[in-house]
């Protein structure tokens, strides 16, 4: 190895160490921002190192002696375009739209990994082709293509461009198995017929693209958090495979980290929703039975209340549990909820925030929102720890949470059946702040809203919380 190659290897190793450290710091909201900065530093080092390596000629151990000018121009233009688009999306996207943004990033990442692997197969000379290259690049093409098409559909469902309901595909199981078998066969042929590698690589790419569609289209919106996590893991794995094909240490380690952490999160999310992860990978997640049951719902009348009445209940409570959900994020009302919590605590009232793992549209959504509003981390209580406390709560204030509080999950035959929920219905009094009378993302009515101990406060979460705060101040005057 030359001196530069040794330095390059250690710089990639340093970048990898920073990736690991940054990922570790993201375990807690208190250090998450620092973790992002550390990871960014690692990525900057990796990108600059790769860019310098572009000018290096290992044959002569010199820089700039054999530079592909056209390639350099393309790289610079792509970096500029990607930077502009990335900054624009990151700064203008609302926090409620982050799941769609993550899906789009997965689309780009998976597609890029597939194209890099495809380019490596097509542009490698016959003398340099080997089985390791064919296996790693082939896997990169397949996994990247699945991620590309699947993430594109997921983004469309989350943005409501496509229906969020589970789609019925006639003969879904047959077509899914057929496409999987055909994809595996094309991958095998790619490895055993290197002379025809370009043809088999394109066939594998097309089949994997189709599987991505079959994978995500049948999945309903209520199950989308797990899908996002699985696709994120696929993106990382595809990048790692491309890194192996290119013999790039930074890509291998970064992709492996994303793949491993994404799959770990997928398993945890599937467990949180009581869904078998294996069914997800076969495209059977959120299946047809759930879709047919979605039209059924509870019967009865919702009892409405006012901000003044809610303020009175809160003022005379001893223990209050807030249950935030996507409606809170949509209204950007996290600071108002935090202000209400602070007011109640000054009165000596115990306040806690019940956090469901899949409240919102992606893992950790509520934690991030409430941390942004400076809610003390110790007041954020996970589902398993908060559920036994609901019977002792005088008031459970649900702000925009729907499917994660639906008692229908305890019954068979619904889209949320079996999903562990927050036991809000067991509180002494329940107040639900909700924009309208529509259903949640699972497409069914919430049985909680029709129970005797539940009152509904219809309206924008931010506006209603402001009115409750104003009413509390009047009571103190």
TrEMBL record:
<keyword id="KW-1003">Cell membrane</keyword>
<feature type="transmembrane region" description="Helical">
    <location>
        <begin position="35"/>
        <end position="56"/>
    </location>
</feature>
<feature type="domain" description="NADP transhydrogenase beta-like">
    <location>
        <begin position="10"/>
        <end position="470"/>
    </location>
</feature>
<feature type="transmembrane region" description="Helical">
    <location>
        <begin position="68"/>
        <end position="89"/>
    </location>
</feature>
<feature type="transmembrane region" description="Helical">
    <location>
        <begin position="173"/>
        <end position="192"/>
    </location>
</feature>
<dbReference type="GO" id="GO:0008750">
    <property type="term" value="F:proton-translocating NAD(P)+ transhydrogenase activity"/>
</dbReference>
<keyword id="KW-0812">Transmembrane</keyword>
<dbReference type="GO" id="GO:0050661">
    <property type="term" value="F:NADP binding"/>
</dbReference>
<dbReference type="InterPro" id="IPR029035">
    <property type="entry name" value="DHS-like_NAD/FAD-binding_dom"/>
</dbReference>
<dbReference type="InterPro" id="IPR012136">
    <property type="entry name" value="NADH_DH_b"/>
</dbReference>
<feature type="transmembrane region" description="Helical">
    <location>
        <begin position="131"/>
        <end position="153"/>
    </location>
</feature>
<feature type="transmembrane region" description="Helical">
    <location>
        <begin position="251"/>
        <end position="270"/>
    </location>
</feature>
<keyword id="KW-1278">Translocase</keyword>
<protein>
    <recommendedName>
        <fullName>NAD(P) transhydrogenase subunit beta</fullName>
        <ecNumber>7.1.1.1</ecNumber>
    </recommendedName>
</protein>
<dbReference type="GO" id="GO:0005886">
    <property type="term" value="C:plasma membrane"/>
</dbReference>
<keyword id="KW-0472">Membrane</keyword>
<comment type="similarity">
    <text>Belongs to the PNT beta subunit family.</text>
</comment>
<feature type="transmembrane region" description="Helical">
    <location>
        <begin position="198"/>
        <end position="219"/>
    </location>
</feature>
<keyword id="KW-0520">NAD</keyword>
<keyword id="KW-0521">NADP</keyword>
<keyword id="KW-0997">Cell inner membrane</keyword>
<dbReference type="InterPro" id="IPR034300">
    <property type="entry name" value="PNTB-like"/>
</dbReference>
<comment type="function">
    <text>The transhydrogenation between NADH and NADP is coupled to respiration and ATP hydrolysis and functions as a proton pump across the membrane.</text>
</comment>
<feature type="transmembrane region" description="Helical">
    <location>
        <begin position="101"/>
        <end position="119"/>
    </location>
</feature>
<feature type="transmembrane region" description="Helical">
    <location>
        <begin position="6"/>
        <end position="23"/>
    </location>
</feature>
<keyword id="KW-1133">Transmembrane helix</keyword>
<dbReference type="Pfam" id="PF02233">
    <property type="entry name" value="PNTB"/>
</dbReference>
């Amino acid at each position: 190895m030359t001196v530069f190659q040794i330095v390059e290897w250690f710089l990639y190793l340093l970048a990898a160490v920073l990736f690991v450290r940054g990922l570790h710091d993201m375990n807690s909201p208190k250090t998450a921002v620092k973790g992002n900065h550390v990871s960014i530093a690692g990525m900057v080092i990796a990108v600059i190192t790769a860019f310098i390596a572009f000018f290096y000629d290992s044959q002569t151990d010199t820089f700039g002696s054999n530079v592909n000018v056209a390639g350099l121009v393309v790289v610079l233009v792509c970096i500029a375009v990607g930077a502009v688009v990335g900054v624009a999306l990151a700064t203008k996207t609302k926090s409620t739209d982050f799941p769609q943004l993550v899906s789009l990033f997965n689309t780009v990442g998976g597609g890029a990994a597939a194209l890099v692997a495809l380019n490596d197969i097509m542009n490698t000379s016959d003398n340099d082709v080997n089985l390791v290259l064919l296996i790693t690049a082939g896997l990169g093409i397949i996994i990247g293509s699945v991620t590309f098409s699947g993430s594109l559909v997921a983004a469309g469902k989350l943005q409501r461009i496509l229906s969020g309901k589970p789609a019925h595909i006639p003969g879904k199981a047959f077509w899914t198995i057929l496409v999987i078998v055909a994809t595996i066969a094309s991958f095998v042929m790619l490895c055993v017929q290197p002379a025809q590698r370009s043809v088999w690589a394109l066939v594998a790419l097309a089949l994997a693209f189709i599987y991505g569609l079959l994978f995500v289209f049948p999945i309903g919106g209520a199950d989308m958090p797990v899908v996002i996590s699985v696709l994120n893991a696929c993106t990382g794995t595809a990048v790692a495979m491309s890194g192996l094909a290119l013999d790039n240490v930074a890509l291998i380690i970064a992709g492996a980290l994303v793949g491993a952490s994404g799959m770990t999160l997928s398993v945890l999310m599937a467990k949180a929703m009581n869904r078998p992860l294996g069914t997800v990978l076969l495209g059977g997640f959120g299946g047809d039975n759930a879709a047919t049951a979605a039209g059924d719902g509870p019967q009865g009348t919702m009892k409405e209340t006012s901000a003044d009445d809610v303020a009175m209940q809160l003022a005379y409570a001893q223990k209050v549990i807030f249950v935030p959900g996507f409606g809170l994020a949509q209204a950007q009302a996290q600071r108002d909820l935090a202000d209400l919590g602070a007011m109640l605590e000054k009165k000596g009232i115990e306040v806690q925030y019940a956090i469901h793992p899949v409240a919102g549209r992606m893992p950790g959504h509520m934690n991030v929102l409430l941390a942004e509003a400076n809610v003390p981390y110790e007041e954020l209580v996970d589902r398993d720890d908060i559920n036994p406390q609901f019977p002792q709560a005088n008031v459970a204030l649900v702000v925009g949470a729907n499917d994660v509080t639906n008692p229908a999950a305890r019954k068979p035959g619904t889209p949320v059946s079996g999903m562990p929920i927050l036991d809000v219905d067991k509180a002494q009094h329940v107040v639900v702040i909700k924009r309208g009378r529509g259903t949640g993302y699972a497409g069914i009515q919430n049985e909680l809203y029709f129970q005797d101990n539940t009152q509904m406060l219809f309206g924008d979460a931010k506006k209603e919380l402001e009115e409750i705060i104003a009413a509390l101040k009047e009571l103190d005057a």
